[in-house]
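User: Teach me something about this protein's shape.
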Amino acid sequence: MRTLLLAGALLALVAGRADASRVPPVCPGPAGSTDPIEAAQVFLERVVERTNPEAGYRFVTDAARHGITCKSWVRGRIPFKAYRHIDWNHSTYRRVAVGTGQIVLRVSLRSTAQTKPTTFLLELREQGARWQVGFWGRG
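Assistant: First, the predicted structure itself:
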């Protein structure tokens, strides 16, 4: 009787895993933000720092995602290098260019594990009424 119960429990466990693998990944939230600085902050925290990358997926333009789907993104295929443990008290940004529907920021990030800051460029693009990240890279 125990063997039958154990076999039934194992079958239920395997079936549950199979059903879970069929559930499509979710990249929740709106496509960007109405506030460009908020869009930049959400991107840095969720995507670059990797605190919640799936929630940051929609803060990136389609072009900057390079065709990466939500499913691939959730599995870790993110086209931006991670920068973990950002020291928010010692990180800064400065606007270096502003145009119609575009803002470029020079972002200086410090990590709690590093003493020297690393400088990046972050481009924000206005997509309709919302702002999304169009570029992120070393600057």
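Now, about its shape. Confidence is low (pLDDT under 50) at residues 1-20. The chain has one domain: 28-138. If you'd like, I can walk through any region in more detail.
User: That's plenty for now, thanks!
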